[in-house]
Structure formats: C-alpha cells, structure tokens
Specification:
This protein has a six-stranded antiparallel β-sheet with strand order 5-4-3-2-1-6. It is about 25% helix and about 30% strand. A hairpin with a 3-residue loop joins strand 2 and strand 3. Helix 1 packs parallel to helix 2. The longest helix has 19 residues. The chain is globular, with a radius of gyration of 16 Å. It is an alpha+beta fold.
C-alpha cells in the first residue's frame, strides 16, 4: 500500500462547523457550564456511565473532562478526553484524547505514534457522535455528582 507524500491540509470550515455543533450539543447536556468543579453523570446502563466534570471555568472558556466508567472494561477501551468550550466563538474543541496530549491540526503519515493524518478532526467527530448518543439515550439523565 502506498501513501501520498502530500501534506494533509485540514478542512477548516468543516472542522469549525463540527466544533459549533459540539458546542450546541454541550449546552443541551450541561445545565450550568460556567461553574467550576461541577460533575455530571450520564447513566447509559447499569454497567456503563459517563462522567463529565467541569475542571476550569473562565469568562470566555470552560474546560471539561469526559470519562467513561465501566467496571469490567479495560482502561484502554474507556474513552477519555478533555474538551474546551469557547463561549465567545460558540465552539467546543477536543484538546486531548486518551491522555495523548495536545492534538496537532495534521500529522504526517505514517508517524511514530500512528496517528491519523486528520486525527484532530476524527476525535472531534467522535465527540459529536458521543454527544448525540447521550442526547438520544437519556436526554434528562443529567445529574450532579457530589
């Protein structure tokens, strides 16, 4: 299999539209996204839940941690990501996923960490799908965790 040597150029309008969708969906899920250190749990089943924690709240941004909790699932199969909500731009962007650190706009391929050329777009797409899943499964299932 051969790979193109051309550098991947992100489709910025497509990424921005996705981040705008993610922001809109976050506002439906989080009743109070400007209060620091609040946690919310979304129960999907008796053995699966997601915890969303607001880790940092500033006038124009909110940083959120999302983690899947499933007791019988290995850690590497549990999605975990950090997302920043930009209130002035009305966008939500994944900052890191699976503890990989900050995401670049594009990566050469193949690369040492085997990231996809459009990894940033793909993790933001995963976030959109996850938010959609939460809204469809349990639209009223948000509860504050003490």
């Amino acid at each position: 299999m051969t790979y193109s040597k051309r550098k991947y150029v992100p489709d910025l309008p497509k990424l921005q539209a996705l981040c705008e969708l993610n922001y809109t969906q976050f506002l439906q899920i989080l009743p109070d996204c400007d209060a620091e250190h609040l946690s919310y749990a979304f129960s999907v089943s008796a053995h699966l839940r997601y915890v969303v924690q607001i880790t940092e709240a500033a006038p124009y941004t909110t940083t959120v941690s999302i983690e899947q909790q499933a007791p019988d699932t290995p850690t590497f199969l549990k999605p975990k990501m950090t997302v920043r909500l930009y209130h002035d731009a009305r966008m939500a962007e994944v900052l890191s996923s699976q503890n990989t650190g900050a995401l670049n706009a594009s990566y050469p391929y193949p690369n040492q960490r085997m990231r996809q050329r459009n990894e940033k777009f793909l993790v933001n797409l995963f976030l959109a799908e996850w938010l959609d899943f939460c809204l469809k499964q349990q639209p009223k299932a948000v509860s504050e965790v003490q």
